Amino acid sequence: MAADPPTVRTRVRRLPERGAYDRETIDAILDEALICHVGFVVDGQPYVIPTIHARLGDRLYLHGSTASRTLRTLATGAPVCVTATIVDGLVLARSVFHHSMNYRSAVVLGTARPVTDPEQKLRGLQAVSDHIVRGRWDEVRQPNRQELNQTALLCLELTEASAKIRTGPPKDDPEDLDSPVWAGVLPLHLTPLSPAPDEGVPPDTPVPPNVRHWRKAIGNERTLDGTD
Amino acid sequence: MAADPPTVRTRVRRLPERGAYDRETIDAILDEALICHVGFVVDGQPYVIPTIHARLGDRLYLHGSTASRTLRTLATGAPVCVTATIVDGLVLARSVFHHSMNYRSAVVLGTARPVTDPEQKLRGLQAVSDHIVRGRWDEVRQPNRQELNQTALLCLELTEASAKIRTGPPKDDPEDLDSPVWAGVLPLHLTPLSPAPDEGVPPDTPVPPNVRHWRKAIGNERTLDGTD
Predict the structure, then answer these.
(1) Fewer CB atoms inside 10 Å of the end CB: C or N, chain A?
(2) CATH architecture group of domain B8-86+102-168
(3) What is the complex's ipTM, to 2 decimals?
(4) How far is B57 from chain A (nearest CA, A)?
C-alpha cells in the first residue's frame, strides 16, 4: 500500500489508512469482483448501472448491447466511474457506532472508448466471458458477425484508480470491552449452489469442471503475457 | 409488474420486459441487498461509492461520517442515484452471446436531505443497523451524543425508482439447442461462513441467533406499522 494516489480526485479522503493505489491491489479487486457499478451523467443526473466487466492488462472492458443507453453514453467519451466492491464480512462491534463491514472496493475514473478493431474486440469479449466462467468461451458457440455487430465493447485505461479496503476485527472503545455481548466478524462469501441444467440438456451431460468448481477469486491470467 | 414507470428517466429502456415499477418489487430488492452503490457528481465527474442503506416505509436512509465527501455532497441536495443489486446466478447458454446473469437491481433517483430531528435520526440509524443484523441495535451499546454528532443520516424519498430483474434459464437460439455442451444456471448466494469471535470475547459467550442464523433476505418489518 505504498503507492501514492495517481490524482487528487482518486485520493481516499475518509479513513485514508484504508486507501491503496498500487495496481496489484486494484487489479485483484477488479478481477475478483463478479460485477461492477458504472456511473455516468445525463443532464446533470447521475446514473449507476450494474454490469459485468473484465480487466485485461492495463485496460478495463465493459460490454453490452449497442442499443444500451449506458454504452451509448459512455461511447461519447463522457466521464465515467466504475466501482467494483467485494463484501467480505460483517464487523459486529460492542457498540452500534463501531459496527462496520469488511470489504474491498476499487474505483476507476476516466473516459471509455469503443473498441472497433475486430481482433481486440474478440479478445475483450473473451476476457469478459473468462471473467464470469473461465474457459467457457472455448466450450460454446462463439459470436457470429451479427452478434458481434449487436455487441458494443468499451475500453477504459486503468490510469486513475484507487482501492479502499477494510479488514480485521471490530475496533471497540476500551470502555466497551467488558460488554458481555458477542462481538466479532461474520465472514460472507458469494457461494455457488447446485448447478441447475437447462431443459433439453441430456441427463448424462457432465457439469464441466469450471462450473462444478466455480469460484470467483481469480484474475485473467492470460493478461500476464502482456499481449493486450 | 403492472405499474408504470414514475418518470421517463426511470423507464427501463433496454429489455423493457425486465423492468418493474411497483413498490413491492422495488422495496424487496432494497431490503434484501446488503449494500448499495451511491452515484453523485462533482465538477462533472461521476463518483460511485459503496455504502450501507436501509429502507423505512417510503424512505431510503444512508448514513456515514459527517466528514465524508459523499455525505457532504449529497447533503447539499445534489442529484443522486442509489442502486442496489443482488446477483442470483450465472446464466450459461450454449452460445457466448446468450450468456447472461440472473439479478435483481433497484435504481432510486432523487435528492437526499439530512435528517436532523433527533428521534427520526435514531429511528433511521436503527433501520440501518437492523438492515445489517436484525436486533443488533438492542444488544449493544447505543450511540451516545458525541457519536450521533459524528454520524450523518440522509433521507431520500422513494418517489422515483425502478427495478430490473432477470430470472430463469438461458434463452438459446433454436439452432444451438442440439449443442452437446452443458447449459443451465449456476445459482449464487451471499453466504455466511463461521462467525469469528473477537479477541477478548469469553469462550463461553454464545453467538446470538441473529448472527448464527444470519441471512440477508428480509426487510424491515417494523416499517409495516407506517410510523416512520
Answers:
(1) N
(2) Roll (2.30)
(3) 0.92
(4) 22
